[in-house]
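Teaching note: in complex prediction, the entire set of molecules is handled at once rather than each chain in isolation. The prompt given to students was simply: 'Predict the structure of this complex.' The entities are:
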Amino acid sequence: MDNRPSHHRLVRIRSSRCESPDQRRLRIREIGGAHVRIGLLAESGYPYVSGGAGLWCDRLVRGLDQHEFDVYAFSHSEAQEDAGWVPLPPQVGRVRTAPLWTAEDDGVVHGRRARRRFTEHYGELAAVLCTAEAPAAPGAAQGAAPEADRFATALNGLAELARDEGGLTAALRSETAVRLLERACRAPRARRAAREARVPDLLTVAAHLEQALRPLSLDWYEEDGLGAVDLCHATAGGAAALPGLLAHHFFGIPLLVTEYGVRLRAHYLTRPDSSPAVRSLLAAFHGRLAAETYRRAVFITPGNAHARRWQERCGADRAKLRTVHPGMDATPFDEVGESPGSADPRTLVWVGRVEPAKDLVSLLHAFAEIHKEEPGTRLRVMGGPSGAEGADYLGHCKALAAQLFPDEAEGPHAVGDNPVSFEEIGGPDLPTVADAYAAGAVTVLSSVVEGFPAGLVEAMFCGRATVSTDVGAVVEVIGGTGLVVPPRNPRALAEACVSLLRDPARRERLGAAARARALELFTVEQNVAAFHGLYLEIVARTPVHRLLLNDSGDPLPFAAPAEAHVPGHWTDLTPRAIPTWARNAPVRTTAPAPVTEAVR
Amino acid sequence: MTDLGALHRETAEPGGPRPPGSAPRRGAADPVKALLHRHRELCERAVDPLEIAAGLEAHGVTDRTAARFRHRDVFSLAEELYARVPRDDGGRPSTAAATPGARADWAVLTLLPGALCFASLTAPRLTHGQTRLLTVAAGILATALALRAALRRGPLSTGDHPSTAPRRSTAAFWTCWLVGYALLGDGLLDAAITGGPDGLPTGAAEGDWPLTAAPVLALALACAPAAWTAHLFSARARRRLVSSRGLEDFAVSVRPVLLGTFALFLCALAALLALSAALLDEPFAPSQTLALGALLFLARLLTVHGFTHAPKVILTATATAQAAALATVFAARLPGCGPLAAPVDTLATAWGPGAVPTLICGAAALTLLIHASRTLTRASAHTRPERPW
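The expected output is the structure of the full assembly:
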């Protein structure tokens, strides 16, 4: 690696730089590595207002105010950039953002040697993509290692080229890139789908690779950029993890990858209309990238067992996997959770965004049977539609409810009402989500597709007995504290609901257990604590070895003493077992090690 | 977990989740076959087992469902499906890339410069004095604005190519110079060789420094054929792109399209030139206008497809050469510099003053044509930017 300062060119993709005034403060390093400088790599839109999944990043950063965060973020669109940032706490030292949706050509035209380097590395990358088998089945880990090495070498070669010479964006868009792809596809060992690739496929793949490799051209990989952090925490796989991989390559920074949804899986679902060649090559690229990310990461933290299985499937080492459940704020639900008796014992509640995947039709059919068994039961469906499709579906469900259930009244002189009601949260009757859960004794989840069921966790926080379908991470979340039925099975759903409606004691027992479970596993505090522990473990296990320089620029040998690498709080007075004869003689023979800059 | 277990026993049934009312519920000897039938399309088009696994999960298949098919997890179920489905990789004919059809807005816009130019050329003949000056100024402004609008939309716009940043001021300036030379240059050169000019141009086609308005009108009118031929070229090229198998195939098949398009444009320009010469009652002198039109058309075509460097250099060089030719004639009047004018003088006396721009623009256009036949036949010149995410 050519790491001479003269070779650091700064003319690359423009990235905005904003450093808060607090950045000038002295970095106080506590003994034991308790102060960690974390490079948070965000793609899900953390510092941006419109970043939907950025909430947990915000909670993480706010929860760990004893550490320092450098945020390196990608923006997804111009509108997102224009919307601005959320207010940042003082522990965020600096924020650097770069657009992924556009790349400016930096105007560098490669010379002959640079072109040759590009040809070599890009050709290698294309060859790996075209010849590769399906990425890393668990049994084939041994055979896949050379291919993974080739991929990593090609990727690092391109990154070094971008760092030394610039101009990678133009090169990735050039005809040379397309030609190299074509040559790789026509090579004798190319796989069948790649051999079928036609010119438009090659162009699509080249364009997608250019887009995916944009992080390589950033100016983040400097001594005072990503080189200065103690560890990189990528908040998603894919593009967000790429700077972490390069920081590991250039500076040896350890990498922690958190994936709440597996990027590779999302990628498979996003391109259904492309030709087989395009899908095959891009799947190979993303599979290789994921495998390389998992290989380099010190720890990988999937958000649930489903993500974990995908990661294992893509080649993640089981020893590195630590499931960290997403944390949710429990405080809004405390009041409801502590007063279980307030619920109407004859009301079922469904809360969520109305869309076809929630399968409300099945719920309505189930409720028809429940209503037959237990007349007088009510079903309250709370939540607005999501999108136009959701609105259509909501209309369909309302019509179905009106058909299935006639209005019923208390007596011959009262005005009747339908036992199924559709309500929006946020009105005067239901100001908050907690009130929605409070309205019923049993919460029902009838989805056919679900990722991490946030609504179920909220119901658990509220201490409500739940009946849910066996999809996504439901079983993992609910544990044994609620009833689970197969999806698309209204009769099973109805039986489970009826059994709960008839048994208040069991309802109460399950609700209390669910609340206890949720408070233990799905709070923000456990999430933050888990990451705090991981940070300390990473810094302790794989410290970054930096060469410290004195004032005149010469390396300082022994600047970081050996004790600094001893894990644990080696200067703490209390936990050490000190012999009684030593306690009375606190005489120091040597000066204490310098506190700042000592601990690595 | 007692609750769970009891419910599972009661409700689990072989075959997993089915849409209500579908085929036999029990007793199928090969449950995977039914699943395969249900997800046949997904399985046939999948490129690897993981894609099937992702698709199955999106349809609500979980590990518990996979257990009913006697598989450990969704991945191994997907592998079985992937292995069992017959795969015909012969490939569906890839859907033709939808080329944007001709649209009314740019079709009308490309007609505007010609119409306005014609109006501003005929208006001075009907007006006198102060009004005439104002009319000329308004005409030039209107034509320039119309031209700008015509180049902002449709096939002559650079908007849909990622690498053409708005750095076209130099090219625009030199284009203006070239058009200005077509209007005034020949008269000036003629006058300079014979010892003039003795005054500013009067705006008439005869006199000491005559204007040649027909080429300018023809060029303004040629905006429309330029847009249509550029549209034709990109549409044809994209069709070839879809149908060709390799990059070499594509280059070979696109080159005749490029040359044909270019020839078509030249024919249209010649016809328009004859028309405008007849309209304005001027002599029909096609060579220099054709050369200039060819140069401008090729420069724009290259710019539209993302190659901005070469047109800029060539336009600058052409304009500089024309200016230098004029300058040598004037410089020859200085004592001792007589021989400077010899080449231009010889050319102008042998073939008329139009020979100078013909030669210069022709050479430049030829250079650009050779360049275009190498660059515009690349597949990467015909990509359209894809909206990310």
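Point out the following to students. Residues 18 and 38 of chain B are 9 Å apart (CA to CA). Chain B touches chain A through 55 residues (CB under 8 Å).
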